[in-house]
Amino acid sequence: MKVRIKFAKCGAMVFIGHLDMMRYFQKAMRRAGIDISYSQGFNPHQIMSFAAPLGVGLCSNGEYMDIQVESATTSEQMRQALNAVMVEGVEVLSVKRLPDDAQNAMASVAAAGYTVRFREGHEPPFDVREAFEAFREKQQILITKKTKKGEKELDIAPSIYEMRLTDDGIYLLVDASSAGNIKPGLVIQALYEQNQTQLGEFDLLITREDTYVAREEDGKVVYLPLDAIGEDI
Amino acid sequence: MRKLALSDEILLKIDKPARYIGGEVNSVMKDNEDVDIRFCMCFPDVYEIGMSHLGIQILYDMLNRLEGVWCERVYSPWMDLDPIMRKERIPLFALESQEPIKSFDFIGITLQYEMCYTNILQVLDLGQIPLHASERSEEDPIIIGGGPCSYNPEPIAEFFDLFYIGEGEKQYENLLKLYRKCRSEGASRSEFLKQAGCLPGIYCPQFYEVTYKEDGTIGDFVPTVPGMPQTILKEIEMDVTNTYYPKKPVVPFIKVTQDRVVLEIQRGCIRGCRFCQAGQLYRPVRERDVEMLKEYAVDMLKNTGHEEISLSSLSSSDYSHLPELIDFLIDECNKKKINISLPSLRIDAFSLDVMSKVQDVRKSSLTFAPEAGTQRLRNVINKGLTEEVILNGAREAFRGGWSRVKLYFMLGLPTETEQDMRGIAELSNEIAKVYYDTVPKEERKGKVQIVTSTSFFIPKPFTPFQWARMCTKEEFIEKAYVVKSAILEQLNQKSIKYNWHEADVSVLEGVLARGDRRVAGVIERAYRKGCMFDSWSEYFHNDRWLDSFAECGVDIDFYTTRERGLDEVFPWDFIDCGVTKDFLKREWKNAHEESVTPNCKMNCQGCGAARFGGGICFEKRDG
Ligand code: SF4
Question: What secondary structure, in 3-state letters, does B94-140 show?
Fold first, then answer.
């Protein structure tokens, strides 16, 4: 049975990198007594895959991983069993059964939503509200991206699906697919450049709010959280 | 949510920030309201090394079980963070509370190897705690050292308020009780130390004075305060079954050296190899009850979620219930898809069978530690491993599919001759020959791979070789060269890879191991010159050390190459580890006569450790 797990990561845990988070969850599965499936071979490993790697330093309210299990209790029991063995800063939010033909988490990711805040004492030297309105009107947002072959101009406007001011920051919904993934910092950097300033390395506090799949509904693309396609067990 | 001591900006700039944030699975948080003693355990090396150490996990668990006591952890900040903390004057902090260690009551520093001595100073310095015990005030924490190097604490004595000699399970509770009592009576730091120095196993160096003879050796070692004991007997836990052992060890977020459940099956070693310090310090052998081990294995795996379990002891093959324990583990671990790792097994039919069940034979290698190249020298060091046993073991293993062999030897052992050095090459060659003789051509997958490694022999306190002369750096290098050339002359030289250890660092380790109080100044000076992480070859600066010796007027040869007389008073003679100096002398003599001493299971040699009233000394012997 395929199971999708949604979790949040914050506090000190933002300093734990992606690979270590995988190791963390492998051990957590054993502590929680989840009947996870193993691969064959001399060194069997757990069947587990993560949706979209989260950079070090970022919080998230919507991380996902898929696991395969041999047996399951209920969604609620599994969620509680996992939360009983979590550390401060990681919380399991939902456990859902996936349809057998569901795409794996990584492949199904289309977009991610982020709230970007400015660190205390690192606020931009320009009026964000004013700058943001002008920025939003732009049809083209060109950035230079460093690649192996040198630098490349890139228009990221088509990859920004939504952009709005919130009470204490900027909300961004951007492409997070493996082909066109955009880092939220890149968008803010473009905003800074438009205002003739440079974004510092530590200016932003970024929270990933959720990770989404894309669905067509009535000819329109809608973005649904990754666990929307699962069902409670 | 805990507030971290380091800013996000710093944490994002340095390598592996997880080293400094605490909050790991099974780490212990307590409410400061319920706590009146704050204890910080320190392993003076980088997090990944320190977190792999079993002793700290045992003491951490034990101390946190005590009411009113909160034990936390601290490790050496790595070389990327160290300069930042100095520049920004950030006081070194404990992982759990993230509070400065200078505000603690105790800092317990485990001393596992001599090459971490400069890191002790780093921890104190970054902790903003005076380096010398004599400079500390009522507000400063009590700095207490323990672990194998505390059996010769003298080179670092001036940096410590107390040393704990022996196994931690026994005396910490009493020490903390005394601390509480002294505090409630308003006693001074010095008053507490005086009383602590009278507890069993506790050594308070500031209340002793050393005088030296004209030739530089020790004349006298005397307490300067009435009541201080003349000798300090090690503390030992005789009931290793009904004692503290952590069922919920801390599980690091990042990969550490020992990323697995560690099950200590016994303490001590019956073998009595004459170069080995651990083999003498931890006498007598005490085995843990096999039922207890089974229970702990299951619980520890469950509580940590580790995917591997490892048995720990100096010589696992000597554990009497090993087959039963391993059968149980194989059964249990197969069900749960857990790996078993079995270090320090003697290669024989039993262990080969077990290893073929728990590891991928094609990928794993066999390990032999003959330590010396000829039977004569193996008799000198009392390593009861014969060429026949090695070659038979190898033959069996090659039949079973193994084709990689690791061999460990020492260079510079007492009485060593060129023949012994060449013997290393010849034995390596013989093993390769056994492979080609045993495995038919069509079954071979390429060459047999033999990796022969030599380290340099360093005489250690409380061993029969504590009187031995140590070689110079030049002699060491010359010896490695002899081995290297001899290997090149062998028929199967293409199957043998030869590695040898750095000579500089061995010489320094030799000084620190058998050093006295006069060496402390050198350690401090080397630290001031920037020496830290000396056991990491990329950070070892021999030139700075040599300058420090010269500037302090301390002669390296006095501690290394000098011949020591049988009646010399050693800096560590005031410590009684159970094994008597007479026994060690006897063994030193036996070494020169190339005579082998039977192990504790065959025959008791009356080493002195029977006075602890238990363990192997009182077990029935077959035959
Ligand atoms: S007293 Fe005898 S049996 Fe006990 S440790 Fe010493 S030699 Fe071994």
Answer: CCCCCCEHHHCCEEEEECCCHHHHHHHHHHHHHCCCCCCHHHCCCCC
Nearest to B342 by CA among B444, B260, B245: B260
Give pLDDT tens digits for B411-464: 999 999 999 999 999 999 999 999 999 988 888 878 899 999 999 999 999 999
ipTM: 0.92
- Measured at the CA of B228, the angle between CA B222 and CA B232, to 5 degrees, comes to 85
Nearest CA to ligand 1 atom 6: B607
Residues of chain A where predicted confidence (pLDDT) is lower than 70? none
Q: What is the CA radius of gyration of chain A?
A: 19
- Report the DSSP pairing between strands B339-341 and B308-312: parallel
In this structure, chain A runs to a length of 233
The answer to whether the beta carbons of residues B611 and B578 sit under 8 Å apart is: yes
- Residue B12 is nearest to which of A28, A56, A88, comparing CB atoms? A56
Which of the listed residues B280, B586, B607 should we mutate to test ligand 1's pocket, taking the one with most ligand atoms within 8 A of CB?
B607
* Min Cα–Cα distance to chain B from A4, Å: 20
B116-141 burial, b at 16+ Cβ within 10 Å, e below that, comes to bbbbbbbbbbbbebbbebeebeeebb
- Domains in chain A with CATH codes: 2-108 (3.30.70.580), 111-225 (no CATH)
Task: Assess contact for B111 and B150: CB atoms under 8 A.
Answer: yes
Which residues does ligand 1 sit against, CB inside 6 Å?
B 283-284, 600, 604-607, 609-610, 616-617
* Regions of chain B short of the pLDDT cut 70: 362, 622-623
**DSSP secondary structure string for all residues of A1-64:** -EEEEEEEE-GGGGGS-HHHHHHHHHHHHHHHT--B-B-SSSS--B-EEESS---TT-EEEEEE
CB atoms within 10 A of CB B189: 16
CA B381 to centroid of ligand 1, rounded, Å = 18
CB atoms within 10 A of CB A75: 18
Strands (E), A69-182: 90-97, 111-118, 142-147, 150-155, 160-165, 170-175
pLDDT score of B622: 61
Question: What is the dihedral sign for C-alpha B584, B590, B594, B597?
Answer: negative
With 0-12 CB in 10 A as exposed, 13-18 as middle and 19+ as buried, what is A139? exposed
A56–B337: do the CB atoms touch at under 8 Å?
A: no
pLDDT of residue B366: 86
Phi–psi pair at B56, nearest 5 degrees: -65, -40
Tokens coding B495: 């199957």
Structure tokens at B215: 């030739």
Cα nearest neighbour of A25 on chain B: B305
pLDDT (0 to 100) of residue B177: 97
List residues bridging with A91 in a β-sheet. Answer: A8
